[in-house]
Design a protein that fits this description.
Elements (H helix, E strand, L loop, with lengths): L1 E5 L5 H11 L8 H10 L4 E6 L2 E11 L20 E9 L8 H15 L4 E7 L3 H5 L4 E9 L2 E9 L1
Parallel strand pairs: 4-5
Antiparallel strand pairs: 1-2, 2-3, 3-4, 5-7, 6-7
Amino acid sequence: MLTFRHLTPDDLPELHRLEAETYEPALHESDAAFLRLIALYPEGAFGFFDGPALCAYAFAVPLPAGSVLDLKAPLAALPPDADMFYIHDVAVAAEYRGRGLALDLVTRLLDLARDRGFRTSELVSVQGSAPFWGLFGFVRVSDFEYVPGTPATKMVRST
């Protein structure tokens, strides 16, 4: 049976295990960046566990509109002028796909954004995931390289 809970620093090894399974190496986060997101905005860091194994996770944080989190660079603080809900990461282990976990995680993130009064959510779509995000009302703003050689699409959703 799967359990849902917020992420803690103790989950770092499981985060990296699942990240390695789901993202190309250029998109991997640093320990410090993951830990800082958990510390700064714990309500936006959660996942599903199958026993001790992390099988899906999500990260989001308030930022100023138009911002993009730099990979591997820990966020110093929550910006006082944050007016947008930034979805930084959603990942689901291959063996757990097709069970609605991504839908559940994204719905929880969008509910959190609405409950905190954010009227706009933004994200960077990678690895061809833009059609998935389109199912939730996200639309393309621009295409760019998130990291060298890695195409990405900046997307936005208004509530």
